[in-house]
Amino acid sequence: MKPRAKSGWRCWLRRLGLAFMALLLAFAAVVAYANVTAIWASRGRIFTDVEQVPKIKVGLVFGTTSRVAGRENLYFRYRIEAATQVWNAGKVEKLIVSGERSGYYNEPNKMRQALIERGIPADRIERDFAGWRTLDSVVNAKDIFGADPILCISQRFQNERAIYLAQAHGITAYGFDARDVEIHDGFKTKLREVGARVKMWLDVNFLNTRLRHLDGKVDMTE
To answer: What's the whole-number average pLDDT of the chain?
Structure first.
């Protein structure tokens, strides 16, 4: 009887191990697909040469804090530089700066001030204080500011995700890549992006995630 009991125990462990491996493989497949699908969605829509960017009325600059642990945040600097570049090239007429606002920092105000210091008129810049997520920023651009199409301005990883989200919500979107941050500074961001794309895919296909808007609308089409 004892040998049979041991055999049955081993069989149960083997089945449990196989089930765990199958679950792990399924999870890896979802992660891989979610990360690749954003690349597919943005093919031919993202530009690194400003001269190739189509003229689009409104550019959407994604927010980030200007400083991290007391040091300059290069993601912030490079996004501001990219936005200034497309403005100076005459590719956009207006800009939306979208990010978070709290008692400790105000991303839209910081971005707006940085753009004004680079010569962009204040009346050409609108602030979206409800840009908690890329999803909110993209949909707010159309629902709150009436912008469609939009030119997404950020690093490529976010532009790809933003274009996927825009297309899923019936918005025409393109992207202009800001300079990326070197791997030793941006490794944590790249790692988070893997999870962010899984969340992106789930939001669109399964979760039907509700958006968080500010009250009122701003007409940027005039």
So the answer is: 86
Task: Please report the domains of the chain, with CATH numbers, ordered by start residue.
Answer: 40-207 (3.40.50.620)
Structure tokens at 45: 């829509």
Distance, CA of 103 to CA of 109 (rounded, Å):
13
- Residue 52 region, left (φ>0) first, then alpha (ψ -120 to 50), else beta? alpha
pLDDT band at 1 (very low <50, low <70, confident <90, very high): very low
Supply the DSSP symbol for 32: H
- Segment 157-183, tens digit of pLDDT: 999 999 999 999 999 999 999 999 876
Q: Are 78 and 178 in contact (CB under 8 A)?
A: yes
**pTM metric for this prediction:** 0.84
Helix (H) or strand (E) segment spanning residue 2: helix 2-41
Spatial CB neighbours of 211, under 8 Å, sequence gap ≥ 6 = 135, 136, 139, 140, 143
Q: Would residue 208 be called left, alpha or beta, if left means φ above 0 and alpha means ψ between -120 and 50 degrees? A: left
Instruction: Answer whether the bond into residue 149 is a cis peptide, omega within 30°.
Output: yes
End-to-end Cα, the chain, rounded Å:
85
